[in-house]
Design brief:
Order of helices and strands: HHHH
Largest sheet: none
Helix content: 55-70%
Distance between the termini: 35 Å
Shape: globular
Number of strands: 0
Amino acid sequence: MTLHGVGNYTTRFILIHADEVGVAGVDVNIRRLLSCFSGTDSDGDRIAPLADALAPTGRNSDFQHATLDCPTESMSLG
C-alpha cells in the first residue's frame, strides 16, 4: 500500500482515519504489544499483517486509539 511521496506509516494512518480501511497503524507501541503477546520479533515483517488481522473493519480508528495507549500503560521496559 503506497501513496506517492508518503511513507507506509503515514499512509496507513490516512487510510484508517479517512476511510476505515481494514489496516492498522504499526508504530513502536503496536510492535511492542504484538511482539510480547505473539512471540514475534518486533522488527520482523510479521507484525503489520498480524496487526491488520486484528483490526476490525469499520472500527479501525477506535482499535488504533486503544492499541496506541495499551503498551504505554501496561508494559514497562524494566
